[in-house]
Amino acid sequence: MKILVINCGSSSLKYQLFNMDTEEVMVKGLVERIGIEGSRLVQKNNGDEFVIEEAMQDHTQAVGHVFDALIDSENGVIGSLDEIDAVGHRFVHGGEKMTKSALINDEVKEAINDAAKFAPLHNPANMMGLKACEELLPNVPNVAVFDTAFHQTMPEKTYLYGIDYKYYEQEGIRKYGFHGTSHNYITNRAAELLNKDINETNIISAHLGNGSSITAVKEGKSFDTTMGLTPLEGLVMGTRSGDLDPAVVTYIEEKDGVSPGEMNNILNKKSGVLGISGVSSDFRDLEEAAKEGNDRAQYALDIFTTRVKRYIAGYMAEIENTDAIVFTGGIGENSIELRKEIMTGFEQFGIKIDDEANNVRGDEHVISAEDSKVKVMVIATDEELMIARDTQNLVK
């Protein structure tokens, strides 16, 4: 079975084609600047790149070029689109209705559109990718895999907010959590590496990147997570503020005459480590600037690692018997220095990393010391493979 995985952003589209008989990635690609001058598709296959530079006004045209690239006589990997058995789509928000991945039908589409009020930048873009696939591959089943689904096992005590209960009852305002596909993959893989039944596996999954979230996994299920109603809550991130006193919002709106829409843009795109440092949202740039003596860059790194420590320690108390702390995502997998800084201080709980073991990037590694009471691990996440697996299971 060959499954195409599509992940649409507002002006971008990532894709991978899997041969699920072996779970091999046959090809992967990225389309950028959809609807913007300079549209470009780059497809990679065994180190070779195939580039299409043509105007792409919308996601339908972008998906059309993806299909052209897949069957290109010289650079493609399949002879015909008939070889694609199903398409798996990443959807950011499924609300309370979508508690697991689903074959897409009218009812599922309605739920996706209902949840779009909480993900106005993402769900509509995801829907555009779906519509394009339905038009261009009318007889191929489509599956929706939701970032929020893994977190639907959270209990009320971790997902409800301290506001009038009517806002939950009437508007569905609660913590939903995100990066669920990644945290789900990490949970399953950690259980395998720990040689434990997944229903007895308790881990802290730290997905750290430009967007970051931490999830407390109790008995193989999401128990608590840092992101909330939207991906804005929780850790300080690349451009997102993370947790802050709500009065900060109303103060800035009133003092500077900022509209709610403008405030939302400030908190999502002009805050985080970018706003603190004034340097960059890229943590590699911050580490370089800090080494050169830039105090604000160092503040940004310190604030980030402090928040991560706080959540890991708090979540360990919530799930009690922690089997492992797992780092994943671009930062979690690759930043040796930040992993070390985050775990500094946990020695008082008998948790220690081994500096030599920690000197690694990506793949799968145990980086804790032999006598550490809790294992500390690095596991490279694979959200696309999880989407492909869910798609295969539902189509079968």
From TrEMBL:
The biological pathway it contributes to is: Metabolic intermediate biosynthesis; acetyl-CoA biosynthesis; acetyl-CoA from acetate: step 1/2
UniProt-recorded Gene Ontology molecular function terms: acetate kinase activity; ATP binding; magnesium ion binding
Q: What class of enzyme is it?
A: transferase
- The record's active-site residues are D147
Which residues does the record give as Mg(2+) binding sites? N7, E383
Per the UniProt record, the site (Transition state stabilizer) maps to: H179, R240
Q: Which domain of life is it from?
A: Bacteria
- Known PROSITE patterns for this protein? ACETATE_KINASE_1 (PS01075), ACETATE_KINASE_2 (PS01076)
Check the record and name the SUPFAM superfamilies matching this protein. Answer: Actin-like ATPase domain
Alphabetical keyword list: ATP-binding, Cytoplasm, Kinase, Magnesium, Metal-binding, Nucleotide-binding, Transferase
The note on the cofactor says: Mg(2+). Can also accept Mn(2+).
Q: Which family does it belong to?
A: Belongs to the acetokinase family.
Subunit relationships: Homodimer.
The protein here is known as Acetate kinase
